[in-house]
Amino acid sequence: MLIRYRDGRTKQGILLALDGTLMRVAVKSEDDVVEFRLLKDVWICEDCEPVTFEFPVAVFEAIGIMPKDPVDDSYTGVYDAVEASTPYAMN
Length: 91
Known about the structure:
Elements: E1 2-5, E2 10-19, E3 22-27, E4 34-39, E5 42-44, E6 50-56, H1 57-62, E7 78-79
Antiparallel strand pairs: 1-2, 1-6, 2-3, 3-4, 4-5, 5-6, 6-7
């Protein structure tokens, strides 16, 4: 998954757990697991900064799973599941 910060930074991570409004992610080049919380329809990092997430479709294809409902027929290989800002957007 890609984690996008408001200032333009992008980090790579692996989703470890999603439980309602709490997401735990292993972020590349970081020693500790990072937590994100959904507050008022916005995902917030531990530094209280809004973030969005992207899940490259190639990852789903590689493990034999495709998202049920891609954003549209012209999507560019990225599934913006969590950007929909619902606690269950990744189901």
